[in-house]
């Protein structure tokens, strides 16, 4: 055999091998590569979708946090206003109670002053009777002179 015959046989075997490979081996490899490329594309799309969903979720979380902060600030302000109102109300009640206590003390002081005046009048009347008794050197009968003593007491 000559080199040309061997070369032609090798070419024919090579073409048969290429034909066999193209018909039986290449389609499953191409299908596997296409499926792999499809899975990779789906994975990338899912990753992009998850990334966008994550950013949307982060935005929702931030907006909820901002809303919660605003609500908390509003609640704190409301609580401070209520506390201030309670303090003012307590001050008002304390002032009112203090005024009542002062008024009661004034009334009591006036009553005690009236009692003291009455007691002083009685003592002065008794002293006047004793003084008159000593001056006149007579015994004065309080029952007989009750009207005179009453007038003297009212004059004092």
Automatic annotation (TrEMBL):
Q: How does it assemble?
A: F-type ATPases have 2 components, F(1) - the catalytic core - and F(0) - the membrane proton channel. F(1) has five subunits: alpha(3), beta(3), gamma(1), delta(1), epsilon(1). F(0) has three main subunits: a(1), b(2) and c(10-14). The alpha and beta chains form an alternating ring which encloses part of the gamma chain. F(1) is attached to F(0) by a central stalk formed by the gamma and epsilon chains, while a peripheral stalk is formed by the delta and b chains.
Tree of life domain: Bacteria
Please explain the role this protein plays, according to its UniProt record.
Component of the F(0) channel, it forms part of the peripheral stalk, linking F(1) to F(0). The b'-subunit is a diverged and duplicated form of b found in plants and photosynthetic bacteria.
Sequence similarity: Belongs to the ATPase B chain family.
* Gene3D superfamilies recorded: 6.10.250.1580
- Entry keyword set: ATP synthesis, Cell membrane, CF(0), Coiled coil, Hydrogen ion transport, Ion transport, Membrane, Transmembrane, Transmembrane helix, Transport
Q: What is this protein called?
A: ATP synthase subunit b
What's any one GO cellular component for it?
Answer: endomembrane system
Q: According to Swiss-Prot or TrEMBL, what is its membrane topology?
A: Single-pass membrane protein
Q: Any stretches that span the bilayer, and where are they? A: 7-26
Q: Which InterPro entries match?
A: ATP_synth_B-like_membr_sf, ATP_synth_b/b'su_bac/chlpt, ATP_synth_F0_bsu_bac, ATP_synthase_B_chain
What GO MF annotations does this protein's record show? proton-transporting ATP synthase activity, rotational mechanism; proton-transporting ATPase activity, rotational mechanism
Where found, per UniProt? Cell membrane; Endomembrane system
Keyword Coiled coil in record = yes
Task: List where this protein forms a coiled coil.
Answer: 44-126
């Amino acid at each position: 055999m000559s080199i040309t015959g061997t070369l032609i046989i090798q070419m024919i075997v090579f073409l048969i091998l290429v034909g066999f490979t193209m018909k039986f081996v290449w389609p499953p490899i191409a299908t596997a590569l296409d499926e792999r490329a499809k899975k990779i594309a789906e994975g990338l799309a899912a990753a992009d979708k998850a990334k966008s969903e994550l950013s949307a979720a982060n935005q929702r979380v931030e907006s909820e946090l901002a809303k919660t902060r605003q609500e908390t600030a509003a609640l704190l302000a409301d609580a401070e206003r209520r506390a201030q109102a309670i303090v003012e109300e307590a001050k008002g009640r304390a002032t009112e109670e203090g005024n009542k206590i002062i008024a009661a003390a004034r009334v009591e002081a006036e009553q005690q002053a009236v009692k003291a005046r009455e007691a002083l009048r009685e003592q002065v009347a008794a002293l006047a009777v004793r003084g008159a008794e000593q001056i006149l050197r007579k015994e004065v009968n309080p029952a007989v002179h009750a009207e005179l003593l009453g007038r003297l007491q009212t004059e004092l």
